[in-house]
Amino acid sequence: MLSDRIAIVTGGASGIGRAIVHRFARERAHVIAIDRDAVQLSETATASALIEAAAADVTDHGAIERIVGETAARYGRIDILVNNAGFSYYARHDASTLDQWRATQSVNAEAAYWLAKLVTPIMARRHYGRIVNVTSIQAYAPDVDVTAYAASKGALDAWTRALAVDLAPSGILVNAIAPGCIHTSMCVIDGEDMTQSADFQEWYVRRRKIPLGRPGTADEIAGAAVFLAGDQCTYVTGHTLVVDGGLSTTH
User: Fold this and answer.
1) E strand or H helix at 69, and its extent?
2) Kind of pairing between the strands at 30-35 and 192-193
3) 13-17, 79-83, 196-200: segment of lowest average pLDDT
4) Which of 10, 38, 61, 118 could make an SS bond with 55 (beta carbons 3.0 to 4.6 A apart)?
5) Residue 217, class by beta-carbon neighbours within 10 Å (0-12 exposed, 13-18 middle, 19+ buried)?
6) What pairing do the DSSP bridges indicate for beta strands 188-189 and 6-10?
7) Tens of pLDDT along 109-127?
8) What is the tens place of the pLDDT at every residue in 69-91?
9) Catalytic amino acids?
10) Alpha carbon separation from 37 to 46, 48, 92 (Å, rounded)
């Protein structure tokens, strides 16, 4: 479904990003995976010869500019950008710091802006592009202790719609995916897998606060990304696809 497309995916070393990288490669895309964890990223890249590891922090604007420039020079184009890299901390508002707020916005919102700024002129030359931003249902139905994260994802969601309007004349479609409770390492807080806690199992599974009765998998998010990044997506732009097992309907 993505045969010979050139894709850049951030946060590609683990979790949802890793699943997207692997799924894109299985769909025959050439994937440049960006992550600051060089060791995990290298392991991710061993899955396919179509995956190229590009170790960098998404907040390092110079490094990201070099990666985009090298990719465009090598392949002559960039077809797909997935802004997946994310950061969060857990603290009530009155216990948080300005540095934590800025770090969250820098990774979750500013890095997405900068990457889109770099790739869209390359996409526009061929009048073709797909940008997929990974947001969160926390933007609409936040839990406690995640004020900065929810704000950054809400900003990314609104920016997705605005960017879709700006880039439509250039043939670039811009959409987002809002995952719900997805079973990744982000579910582990203070050493505990929250999806296995008694409260989660009682309320979200047995009492069906998640109507499908389970957390999602990273590969289920990757499947949504394949659709939004592919040629079969031709008349969808400015949309946020919620992939949460129905959780937002009962929140």
Assistant:
1) helix 61-75
2) unpaired
3) 196-200
4) 38
5) middle
6) unpaired
7) 999 999 999 999 999 999 9
8) 999 999 999 999 999 999 888 88
9) 149
10) 15, 18, 28
89 belongs to a structural domain: yes
The one-letter amino acid at 96? S
Q: Are 27 and 49 in contact (CB under 8 A)?
A: no
Contact (CB, 8 A) for 21 and 43: no
Residue 191 in this model has a pLDDT that exceeds 90: no
Domain that holds residue 228: 6-187+217-250
Residue 205 is assigned to a structural domain of this protein = no
CATH, residue 139? 3.40.50.720
> Within a domain: residue 199?
no
Question: pTM of the predicted model, to two decimals?
Answer: 0.95
Q: How many domains does the chain have?
A: 1
3-state SS, 137-196, equals HHHCCCCCCCHHHHHHHHHHHHHHHHHHHHHHHHCEEEEEEEECCECCHHHEECCEEHHH
| Residue closest to 119 by CA, chosen among 130, 110, 108 | 130
The answer on pLDDT for 187 being more than 80 is no
The DSSP line for 207-247 is: S-SSTTSS-B-HHHHHHHHHHHHSTT--S--S-EEEESTTH
CA distances from 46 to 13, 14, 31, 75, 133 (A): 11, 13, 12, 21, 25
Q: What pLDDT is attached to residue 176?
A: 98
Q: Is residue 200 part of a domain?
A: no
Per-residue pLDDT band for 166 (boundaries 50, 70, 90) equals very high
pLDDT range class, residue 46, cuts 50, 70, 90: very high
Residue 36 DSSP one-character state: S
